[in-house]
Amino acid sequence: MKQRALALAGLLQSVQQVRRIATTGGSDTGALAPCVDSLFRIDAETAQDVYGGPANLEPGLRLLFDTASGASLRDPAITRIAVTLLHVERRFSRQPQLMQAVHAGILDIARQREHWGPSHPTVLGRLGELYAGTVSSLRPRVLVQGNPNYLGQPTVVAEIRAVLLAGLRSAVLWRQLGGGYIDLLLRRRQIAEAARAWLDEA
Fold first, then answer.
1. How do residues 158-185 score in pLDDT, each as one tens digit?
2. Cellular location of this protein (predicted)?
3. Which CATH architecture has domain 2-201?
4. Distance between CA 47 and CA 53 in Å, rounded?
5. Where are the domains of the chain?
6. pTM for this one?
7. Which end of the chain is more exposed for a tag (fewer CB within 10 A), N or C?
């Protein structure tokens, strides 16, 4: 469960940044970078390696602990978007050609990520284009609400899509580690305990 909890924290941290971008026009780079970087760590052996350690996911782990403990979130849209991404992941994982297209696109963008870093506008823009050309065709659609002034800006929309792709990466990892809806329904206490354990290590 501990490894699965880290994947869920990655998902929540990505969605939290999606909401921040949609409502304020900008992200928390420190929280954003490990989420986006996870896209390029395709062959990582552990969940820790995917995110660079639990310290990089402290915001997501706190969100996960609060959610699994039954606390009322200030932004319930985070849970809604995260659940939608878990549904999208099921469709995505059943389409090998689509998965291959995303994989190839990420490998191509990796050169720019190495040069500029994961949070550079060019990297985020290309990841956003990749999401728009692949994952956005899947249903259910991920609906992101926010400030219309920001959501009308192409660069903001591209950044949101890039971070949604990072969220999907975490959803895929969650499933690969054996996560399922039964965990979310019946094992919330174990998830909260795992999140607390990671926070103690962060």
1. 999 999 999 999 999 999 999 998 888 8
2. Cytoplasm; Cell membrane
3. Orthogonal Bundle (1.10)
4. 8
5. 2-201
6. 0.96
7. C
